[in-house]
Design brief:
By secondary structure, this protein is of the alpha/beta class. Helices cover 36% and strands 17% of the residues. The chain contains 15 helices and 18 strands.
Length: 570
């Protein structure tokens, strides 16, 4: 594995920790070596010391979350004993000539087949040049090398439709499409991968997964962090380019795709491509942008985006985006998909929330129409991976009254926790040659095609109201208006597992308050009460958690190991 940019932040925070986790789990090949290519003029010892310091911090964080021990010396040595460093300029032919000399020598030294995975952990501006040099030195030529050669390319893959098409054309002169792995770490998360299994391995929900039963879909990726010292990068990129054509559209595609003919990589990617190509180009009237001002995030005072290092004091770069998306297929015609993502928001959460249409209310008129609401299915991707379902049931008692309840599935309840940064599965698939979770060239271009009208409009018309949301809030008020004027919809509160819709929450509060009051009175002295036929008074307008009904086994198996997925054929 050759990592261009081996001394960078991405390598230290994600790539190397992922390799370490693969090593701990015995998933690295027996014959495996890593070569870092970076511009910093340091030796291999200094590079490894820097990586070890980062790994200590990484493991310390996971110790709190997952009760891990210190660094597994055996797993770490499995990597460091076979790691090498080359100092060189990415734009210089001499760097690649030196690399071409070193790879055969290392392969012979360690008994490795001539298979190489090139990882481009560099800024976007180097992608095309690095691949040009790989082609010029024959490093990507499989016939010449005698083994497979694959290239992993990080996002952003282009910054608009024209640049994405140009980059695809440029790398296509050197690499075949099956050699290119456009990586998106969102797709390495367990719940994201589980979307396909949840939909197509169970017969319960798929018959209702269409415009006849689903009212709308909300996809949220909210972050509490700001730009984290990446002001120079973010000024050129912005929230829309950073999150929508890759992360959010990939989640949308997995929710909206048709059933594949098989779980072969190309069958799945074809279905996802069909969805993305069916996205109607999004008009500026269906988009809202925002930029965070000062405020408080997690009870800590936070500065405005314009006060971040390397950010212009009058910056017009968006740190929040909300979109209404239409997917023009038979299954989804008329069903809006609402997407939102932003930084410095009130809660960290990534979720897909599917709201089903309400059932006919005629049979329940006497219960009060306001206590009868829609059902929600929520796929929680982070921070706590799981799936929740909210629906109505009859409350105990002689009167017919409805209350919302929730059934929860949490990964942590059923499977042992594993340290995971989201890249483990993706790197493992790259080594196997499994492209299921990676985008094809046509998918990338279709994503940019969908947002191109917004990019052009925003470039011509700078925002006049920035900053327009406080740090620690749920985003700009215009995002609420976007949903309200569509179909009278509203965003789900950030971080709530499920939404107690309308006064259904009131019914729950009244029931809980009545139970607590009754218990207190009973403890004082015996009393006789008589139920009133009059409606209860409205409770104070405070948020209340819905009644929870957790779906768990009577006794969780203690010694049962998680079932391994079947091997994927190549």
């Amino acid at each position: 594995m050759v990592i261009f940019g081996g001394g960078g932040d991405l390598t230290k925070r994600l790539v190397v920790p992922a390799l370490y986790n693969l090593s701990r789990n015995g998933l690295l090949p027996e014959q495996f070596a890593v070569v870092s290519v970076d511009g910093a003029d340091i030796g291999v010892d200094t590079w490894l010391n820097n990586l070890h310091a980062s790994m200590k911090s990484f493991v310390a964080t996971r110790n709190i979350e997952m009760q891990l021990q210190e660094i597994d010396d055996k797993a770490w040595s499995r990597l460091t004993d076979f790691m090498h460093y080359i100092s060189g300029d990415f734009t210089s032919a001499a760097t690649y000539q030196h690399l071409a000399e070193q790879l055969p020598r290392l392969a012979e030294q360690y008994g490795i087949a001539p298979n190489v995975l090139f990882y481009l952990a560099t800024p976007e501006r180097f992608f095309g040049e690095i691949i040009d040099h790989l082609g010029a030195e024959g490093l990507a030529d499989e016939d010449r090398a005698g083994g497979w050669r694959r290239v992993v390319i990080e996002k952003p893959f282009g910054h608009d439709l024209a640049s994405a098409m140009a980059l695809n054309a440029r790398i296509g002169k050197v690499l075949r499409e099956d050699q290119i792995f456009r990586i998106d770490h969102f797709l390495g998360k367990e719940t994201v991968q589980n979307i396909l299994a949840f939909r197509f391995a169970n017969g319960l929900f798929e018959p209702s997964w269409n415009r006849d039963r689903i009212d709308h879909v909300q996809i949220t990726a909210a972050e509490t962090v700001g730009v984290e010292g990446r002001g120079a990068f973010y000024e050129q990129t912005g929230c829309l380019r950073d999150m929508v054509p890759n992360h959010l559209f990939q989640l949308l595609a997995m929710v909206a795709m048709e059933a594949p003919s098989s779980f072969d990589a190309e069958a799945i990617r074809q279905r996802k491509a069909e969805v993305i190509e069916a996205i109607r180009p999004i008009q500026p009237t269906d988009a809202v942008r925002g930029q965070y001002g000062p405020g408080a995030v997690n009870q800590t005072l936070s500065r405005a985006y314009r006060d971040e290092p390397n950010v212009a004091p009058d910056s017009g770069t968006e740190t929040y985006v909300a979109l209404k998306v239409n997917v023009d297929t038979w299954r989804w015609a008329g069903v809006p998909f609402y997407l939102r993502t932003g930084k410095h928001m009130g809660r960290r959460t990534t979720e897909i929330a599917i709201r089903f249409k309400s059932a006919p209310i005629a049979s329940f008129r006497s219960t009060g129409v306001d206590a009868f609401g829609p059902d929600w299915l929520v796929l929680q991707i982070q921070p706590d991976e799981g799936i929740s379902l909210q629906f109505d049931v009859k409350k105990p008692g002689p009167k017919v009254a409805l209350a919302p309840v929730r059934m929860d599935f949490k990964y942590a309840d059923w499977f042992p926790s594993e340290s995971n940064v989201g890249y483990e599965t993706l790197l493992y698939d790259c080594m196997l040659g499994d492209a299921t979770l990676f985008q094809r060239a046509d998918m990338v271009e279709a994503c940019w095609q969908a947002v191109q009208p917004i990019l052009e409009a925003w470039a011509k018309t700078p925002a006049m109201d920035f900053p327009n949301y406080a740090s620690g809030s749920a985003g700009p008020s215009a995002a609420d208006t976007l949903l309200a004027i569509s179909h009278g919809h509203a965003w789900r509160p950030l971080g709530q597992p499920l939404l107690p819709y309308g006064s259904r929450g009131k019914a729950v509060r009244e029931a809980e308050a009545g139970k607590a009051k009754s218990a207190t009175a009973s403890a004082a002295k015996p009393v006789t009460t008589r139920k009133s036929s009059k409606p209860a008074k409205a409770a104070p307008a405070k948020a209340a958690a819905p009644v929870k009904s957790a779906v768990k086994p009577a006794a969780k198996p203690a010694a049962k190991a998680p079932r391994k997925a079947p091997a994927r054929s190549k």
